[in-house]
Amino acid sequence: MGKLFLLLTVLSESAAVVFMKLSVGFQHRLYTAFAIVTYALSFVFLTLSLKTLPAGIANAIWAGASTLLVAVLGIIFFKERLSTWQIVCLMLIVIGLVGLNVRKQVS
Asked: Which of 50, 80, 85, 100 could cross-link to 74 by cystine, CB 3.0-4.6 Å?
């Protein structure tokens, strides 16, 4: 269940960032309200995931996966552009996330 809650953390936190962008500095109240609710949900889900996952690993996965997802959502919804260097750095995050999730086989 911990990984499911962590996934919900990433999704809700990423949605919160998109809603904050849409709120245009808190000018649009509906998007501001959605941002607050989805951020609150992300903290609830993170807290639930920490019941079974190590805090450091869960936080690293949350931060990295949310960064990647928000970057992709920014490209899709806001027509944001990334430089080649930014793309390389995001790929390094992917490598780190894969590394954190690979289980070492004990013979």
From this structure: 80
